[in-house]
Structure formats: structure tokens, C-alpha cells
Amino acid sequence: GQNIDQPTEMTATEGAIVQINCTYQTSGFNGLFWYQQHAGEAPTFLSYNVLDGLEEKGRFSSFLSRSKGYSYLLLKELQMKDSASYLCAVIESNYQLIWGAGTKLIIKP
Amino acid sequence: GAVVSQHPSRVICKSGTSVKIECRSLDFQATTMFWYRQFPKKSLMLMATSNEGSKATYEQGVEKDKFLINHASLTLSTLTVTSAHPEDSSFYICSARDGSSSVEQFFGPGTRLTVL
Question: So what's the pLDDT on residue B102?
Fold first, then answer.
């Protein structure tokens, strides 16, 4: 069946680094997205991985291992504005997005 | 980047009335649009997928007669919540996929529906 797991909530300190993990089991795989969602707002795109390895984009990096069904989002130099929910989503063979429940990230000063 | 708009951003209505939400792709042609709803502190739940000019495909458990979806053009899809009830109160988000870029979905800003 389809399943995407990510931690419900994480807490980190401003200026630090945090890694949010995502494991998945889906019917086919056409890539994995990470989205950021602030409360009351729609998700905004952060990254897309379809090949194994690390994609770096400024303070945010995303890693994928297809053989392990595993991805992580790495956030460096955390800022208070990074407090949000981070959603992992996998595109299946039929191009349908399967969403994780999201990880609420709390940044403390 | 691709922009998707939604209107209205917020609506409050009385129980029993119908509410229409519009989703527009502003700078690209959206061959496929998706409608999601999201309850507080929960993840996005796909309601239906609509392709321009054809009937929407609804997810299991979503009432077709309750949530009417029309995708009449390549830039506009509408979701009508008919005979709304308080349990329909939710955050509704649309997304659109550019036919030439078949992977990424571009999200609208969402519509907060409150049914009294």
C-alpha cells in the first residue's frame, strides 16, 4: 500500500541545523517533493528529487535514496521564519501526489 | 514561476447555501487541476483530479454531488460546495499542473471556508 512517514513535530534552536526525515512506500516512483507550509497558507515548493543524492539550494538541502525509500530535508542556519510545517510528497507512476502528514518544526531563540 | 490564484481567499456562509471557489492558472495552461482540503494540523487530502474538458475523478469517500468540479478551460477550474454544512468548514486548496511540465504541481493560496 501507500505510506509516507515523517515525524510529527521537531524542535530546533535558531542558528542550528535540523534534519527532517521521510520514508515512503508507494506504487511506483516519479520523484519526491518537499514543501513548506506556514499556518493558514498553501504549501510552497522547496525541492524535487528524482535521482539519488543530495540537492543543495541555499540553506536548504534535500537527499534521496530510492533503494531505501528514504529522503531527508536539511535546514541550516535556522531562522525564526523557518517555523512551519514541512511536507514530504511522492509522485507515483500515475503522477498522483501522495502526501505525508507533515512535520511541524518549532524554532526557539 | 507559474502562478495559481484562488478566489475567494476566505468565505463565511450559512448552512444550506452553496459556495463556489475558483482556481485560475495565470501564466500557463493547466491541463490538470487538483482540489485538496486540509483540516487543522492535518495533511492535504486530495478530493478530486480534473482534466480540462472532461469529468473530474473523485477520490474514494468524496461525494460527487456535494463537491461539484468544473474544469471548463485550460486556465480555470471551479469547486462548488453544495448545501454546505458546518462539517464542510475547511481549508480548500487547488493546484495545477502545466501540461509541458508534468511533474510539479503549483498551488493556489487556498480558500478558508467557514459554514455557520
Answer: 62
